[in-house]
Amino acid sequence: MNRLHVSDRFRLIDLALLLFISFALTMTLSMIDPDLPSNQPTSPVSCEFFNTSGQLPQELQVVNWNIAKEPLAKVREALHNTSVNLLVLQESAVDEGFLFSPGHRALETTGVALESRVSPSKVCHWQSFEPIMLTPKAAIAASFPIAGSEDELLVINLHGVNFSWLLGTWKRQIRTAALLAKSHKGPIILAGDLNTWRYERSRFIKQVAEELGLAQPAYVEDNRTAPFGYPLDWILSRGINWTEVSAPNAELSDHNPILATGIIVTTAAED
C-alpha cells in the first residue's frame, strides 16, 4: 500500500486552505453592495405619458408569474383555462403585446412585462444591478384608467435583486417602487418575484407594505415557491377586494403562478 508522504499531506492542507480562502473571499464579495462608478445600483426612473380611451373593468383577473424565460406561447397554453385581464410576468421575453422593461441580456433579452387589453396612461421603467456581477434586474410601473371611476390602477411589476447580502442595493430597488406608490392616490398592485428568500427580506417587504397601506391577500391554496421557507413571489395591494387568490403547482417554471380574482374599489366618476 502506498503511504502518503509528509510533504504530500502538507500539499493537501495547503490546497484545502486555498479552497477555503477562495470560498471565504467569494462569500465576502457577494456581501458587498458597491456603488461602482460604471453603473448606478439603481438607474433613474424614466416615465412616459399617453392619451388613452380604454378602461379596465372593475372585475380584475390577475396572474403574477416568473416564467423562467419560457416561451410566451407555452405560458398562454398553461393559462388557457384562466380568464386574465392583467398578466404580470418576470423573466419574460420581449413581445409586441406586452409593456416591457428589459433586464438580463444574453442570447435574448428578458425582463418584466405587463399585458392588458387596456392601454396605460403612464408607464415608468427602471433597472437595478446585482452587486459585483452587475446583472440588471428590471421593474415597470403602469397606470390604467378604471371604468366608471376617476381613479387609476397603478400596477408595479418588480424582479428583485438576488445577491445583495447586506440588502443595500435590494432595499434601494424596493424603495424606488415605494416612492412611486406613495405618489399615487388610487388603487395599487405591487407584484413580482421580489426575491424574499430569507427572513430579513420578507420582514422588510412587510414593513414597506404597511407603510404604504398595502395588504397581502388570503390564499385559498398557497404553493408559492419558497426555497428557504420564505415565498419569493408576491401580490400586495390596496383598494382591491380579492374574492379568490391561489398559487397552484405548475410544471412550466421553477416558480408557481399566483392567480388572483377581485373587484377594484373606486371613487365614482363625477358627472
UniProtKB/TrEMBL annotation:
Database matches in InterPro entries: Endo/exonu/phosph_ase_sf, Endo/exonuclease/phosphatase
Database matches in Pfam families: Exo_endo_phos
Keywords noted in UniProt: Endonuclease, Exonuclease, Hydrolase, Membrane, Nuclease, Transmembrane, Transmembrane helix
Domain of life: Bacteria
Residue ranges constituting the Endonuclease/exonuclease/phosphatase domain according to the UniProt record: 64-255
Transmembrane segments: 12-32
Example GO molecular function: exonuclease activity
Protein name per Swiss-Prot or TrEMBL: Endonuclease/exonuclease/phosphatase (EEP) superfamily protein YafD
Species whose genome carries this gene: Umboniibacter marinipuniceus
